[in-house]
Automatic annotation (TrEMBL), chains A, B:
It comes from the Bacteria. It is an enzyme of class 3 (hydrolase). The gene is fah. Pathway: Amino-acid degradation; L-phenylalanine degradation; acetoacetate and fumarate from L-phenylalanine: step 6/6. Substrate binds at residues 127, 141, 237, 241, 346. Residues 124-408 form the Fumarylacetoacetase-like C-terminal domain. Residues 21-117 form the Fumarylacetoacetase N-terminal domain. This is fumarylacetoacetase. Ca(2+) binds at residues 125, 198, 200, 230. The active site is at residue 132. GO terms for biological process: homogentisate catabolic process; L-phenylalanine catabolic process; L-tyrosine catabolic process. InterPro entries: Fumarylacetoacetase, Fumarylacetoacetase-like_C, Fumarylacetoacetase_C_sf, Fumarylacetoacetase_N, Fumarylacetoacetase_N_sf.
Amino acid sequence: MSLKKSWVASANNPSHPFPLNNLPYGVFSTADSDPRCGVAIGDMILDLQAAEAEGLVQLNDEPLFEMPYWNEVMEEGPAVWAALRDRLTALLAEEAPEQAKTELLLVPIAEAEMHLPVAVSEYTDFYAGRHHATNVGTMFRGAENALPPNWLHIPIGYNGRASSVVVSGTDIRRPWGQLKGPNDDAPRWAPSARFDIELEMGAIVGTPSDGPITVQEADDHIFGYVLLNDWSARDIQAWEYQPLGPFQAKATATSISPWIVTKAALDPFRCDTPVRDVELLDHLKDCGPMLYDIDLEVTMAPKGKAASTIARTNYKEMYYSAAQQLAHHTTSGCPMTPGDLLGSGTISGPTKDSRGSLLELSWGGKEPLTLETGDERTFIADGDILTLKGAAMGNGYTIGFGDCTGTVLPALQDPFKR
Amino acid sequence: MSLKKSWVASANNPSHPFPLNNLPYGVFSTADSDPRCGVAIGDMILDLQAAEAEGLVQLNDEPLFEMPYWNEVMEEGPAVWAALRDRLTALLAEEAPEQAKTELLLVPIAEAEMHLPVAVSEYTDFYAGRHHATNVGTMFRGAENALPPNWLHIPIGYNGRASSVVVSGTDIRRPWGQLKGPNDDAPRWAPSARFDIELEMGAIVGTPSDGPITVQEADDHIFGYVLLNDWSARDIQAWEYQPLGPFQAKATATSISPWIVTKAALDPFRCDTPVRDVELLDHLKDCGPMLYDIDLEVTMAPKGKAASTIARTNYKEMYYSAAQQLAHHTTSGCPMTPGDLLGSGTISGPTKDSRGSLLELSWGGKEPLTLETGDERTFIADGDILTLKGAAMGNGYTIGFGDCTGTVLPALQDPFKR
């Protein structure tokens, strides 16, 4: 696979995140238009509501682009997904006969405001990165008991809050919560002092299911991927999470990147999960390469200052693929719906500079980071801008995700005085 | 408060669950009609879609009853909720001037099929019954460490799966799962052998919120209550739940009773939470009676046999009210939406025959129950019908919930052979 050329010139730059090979799906608005579906090509967005209205995209008897989210397309299933991608590729390729008509429906990305690309039906967060689980387990239980006994047998996950999912660029308000340190006599009500990120990929389920599905079926049901930052209040979590798991610690916000990168665009970057220490039970066994080679990066910028890279890692570091997570999610008969969002779990690599959370990077707050600006950090300070970046590097082209960013605002003065 | 008389004669029986004092809201269909909103009165349902079309109920410029769920009404807020109840009371009271017109829009409950009354946006399950938490904690950690350290300070909860919520009467398929007993060398893939119920109340959030709310505001946001059975696979749970909480063990199904009993109908039965061992932090403190005196019962019927009562308890046994749970749910800024369903947690009383789960009733499977039919049970056997019943007992009238029932079907032969 090499760069496919488009008549949108900016898309032909080998380092541009949105070449014709990518065609990521988002929802945008402009000063003149309400939110609607669009596809990115170079520095431009093709307005798909308009393209459908003009007859340039016509896949079904029913319109697909009347709603400001991608769920309607997702529900149509893989044959329509493939037909849509083929049609968009044909419209946007060099020497496309419809170039003149299509050109009229382009909007500069610079003039667009991005919205959530999908109506998130439910959100599940996994804990499926071995380096992350080992780091966290070592901090809390010691190196010998780092991985829980079930960890190598099941992709451990918990249900999160769909209502907390926001699009990149949304400001994040530092939460209050009930906190109790190990040396405190009693809990107190205070703003979180250990507010953190988690670098994750989000898999978006397109096809519904109503009973157990295989790993292969699960892979077929996934529509695409986004970057995902699972904002986490470590001090709230420490006090609340036993015995039933994280709850308010993870409910403030979950940011996702605005563009859904489709499985088709990522296909050349498929790779295998790591070698298994313990054989998985049949229903969770790998049946093909279902992880992806995607370079990931986290940057942190103190208010008004330049951004420093604080971590670099890769999605292929995960122990379980999103397909394995989705298959496990259905084992009990749990119905899955279009718009289900599955967070991969924090993606850390084996080295210190590849850790996907400040909890790990500062080793529980004991080893502050020094940013390039000279600022020291353990956890997030008010005003900090945290950004996730992701790209799969092809032969002469890039499949980029668009940034997943958020600025952390100070906690409310007192949330119960209004 | 005493019995309010209706021209629907069956509603005037002091033991009928649906007198004029109740007016519970559901969604029903008949052989001749698609699912639509209705209100129960005695043995009948008033078709509210038809009543609105006929001009008998007209609260807004916009129609409220075009959709087959109550979310549209819920979003309107407390003033519309009160106006609707007033109008329905006027239409159905003895000597109502519109009796003749209204009578034409009644459908016998016996001819109706019930559907989910609400589009469940998200589902949260709490663990807020002290007797239940003490029983389970004693079984797993011993009597001295029964309650986790945070339990008396926070209503502990976790996010469940909205997609798993089904209406009473829906058959429940025994799930498969990954199981590993304490003496097993490795996990195996098998049907759950410890499939259980949890007797709970469900609170339905009507008013959205987008930041922390007080306990009083939370009470104001609640639209009504249902009975809720949180079907639980104890063996799946035991292996999966550390460290992030229950996941597939709780995702097979959650049954709710078909009628939403409004907060207004329950108002005469408000009561206080129990005396506190430990003072709650200000934002969670009680500010009025927000539990309810509701008698609860669980019956179990082996296939083709009579039902035996296996537990009797009362909603007032809870340590935290739904209002406290909802307030806690918003502390981190978590947005709540119309259709959020909050399970109370299992409601057990202090005595052995008041325990709301088979786990407790059979003390972890060690003390089988003998049903009135002579059958012995630890957990659920295939074909068993489990039913929750609930009623608040007024002075000469009853506020009933309608049963919450489900038949457990045998596990699929092999869910991956299709």
